[in-house]
Amino acid sequence: MITFVLCGYVFYVLSKNDSRKNKYVCLLSIAAVLEVLDIRGPIVPLGESLVISRSGVFEIILWLYSLYYIKVEKIKINPYFMTGVYLFIFFALVGLTYESLIPYENPIIDHYNELSWDGYAYGLTSKTPAKVSWSWSIFMLFKLSIVLVQLVIIKSILKKDDLLSVLRKMDRFIYYAIVYAVVEMTCKLILNIPNISDAFSNILFFTNDYEGMRDESYALVGVGPEPSVLARYLFLAVIIAYFRKKYDDIYGMTSYYCTVIVALLLMILSKSAASYWLMTMMFVLIYVIKKQNKKYDFKKIIIRLLVFVSLLSMLIWAGGNWLDSSDSYAAYRINRALYTLDYITSTNVLSYNYGGESSLARLGSIYDVFCDFLERPVLGLGAGVQISHGGISSFLCEYGLVGLVIWLGLMFRKTREKRISIMFFMVWFFIMNLPLRMGNLPYDIYPLVIFEMTCLSRGTKNEELKC
């Protein structure tokens, strides 16, 4: 049913009597939010062997409309910016060509295989010689072209009100996803009748509900396929709510606090290990944004630093005792993650078997792929050749340092506005993505929206986003 609702909404947007820019903003919003929600199930049930994702279909619709919009409106694009776009594509092709002519000598995980890293963790598959699958790499470059086109439009013509409109629409879609998660929580954890949640899932998504048990109770997944996806869109809901509270005159404090409280509660109840990491990064970002325009008293900073170190030491001590004595699922996942970190820093990861644990597969994949990047740091292995469960290690391994420098140059163009420290936001975004693929750079659209949020600061109301 959700498929027909989305198709109806797109048809309504394209057919209504409105400006092309407003239509673009609507399509951009729905494409970005579908990436975040990662709604489970195919767009149409075509059998187990053929799955078409909703986000992929709507990204193509957005891409086609974007090209039409650029042509009809005759959008003027900064030539230096376009030079950066062309350079990124050029070096991506150079990296793929180099990998084809001089293949990477170490074996890698064939992620075209359904088992991929999880299969490697459970001993069901092994590493194979590196090779370029041009059909897959061309597909990844096509996804890259979709994002680059959106980047060009966002940087060239969107104004503050347009970006706020994107945030409002994304917030509205995520609101309905949060309502669904609350219904799921009620069915599974309060009424203890998960069959109702399963029935909703079959009607809305053409697939069964997630039935994972953690700590002898059901985990929550919302509209996504697993708990980590729920944690991801709840995290983004809080970030959007904070920026709307700060810059959107029609957004009230009651809505903000309700969003934060409900989102944090659901993140905890999702029983996702990713939720604790995302909550930490959420609080760090909000704290720094609140403090960015204030004058700093270095004496207070030193005192607060000492207090923080003392509290952190006490927390580590208490946490260590809890990890040793607790049988909870959270303690289990943290222990496995610590074990994994110890293991991969003391063993030749390129030759061992992970021993059948998802934490080992995820963190081990990040370490292995980063090691592959270090072997070819300039251009990487090429688009789509080797990926991991970490967004940053995957990006570096695919595009190398050259791609990273060009991408950052495109994302952080000079702006006339006072904004969040570019260096802080870049470091924050990279750290957040180290253990997760929270923003699949450079193939997802919604990270562009997150970056552009930092342009919302003092200035004229409709000033263009020249970031």
Report on the architecture of this protein.
By secondary structure, this protein is mainly alpha-helical. Helices cover 66% and strands 1% of the residues. It contains 17 helices and 2 strands. It has a two-stranded antiparallel sheet with strand order 1-2. Residues 349-354, 415-419 and 457-467 have low confidence and may be disordered.
How are strands sequenced across the largest beta sheet?
A: 1-2
Helix content: 55-70%
The number of strands is 2
Q: N-to-C SSE series?
A: HHHHHHHHEEHHHHHHHHH
Mean pLDDT over the residues: 79
Q: Roughly how many Å apart are the termini? A: 39 Å
Compute the CA-based radius of gyration: 23 Å
Q: How does the helix and strand content classify structurally?
A: mainly alpha
In percent, how much strand structure appears in the residues? Answer: under 5%
Q: Please tell me what the overall shape is.
A: globular
Ranges where pLDDT stays below 50 over 5 or more residues in a row are 349-354, 415-419, 457-467
Largest sheet entry: 2 strands, antiparallel
If helices are DSSP runs of H or I spanning 4 or more residues, what is the number of helices? 17
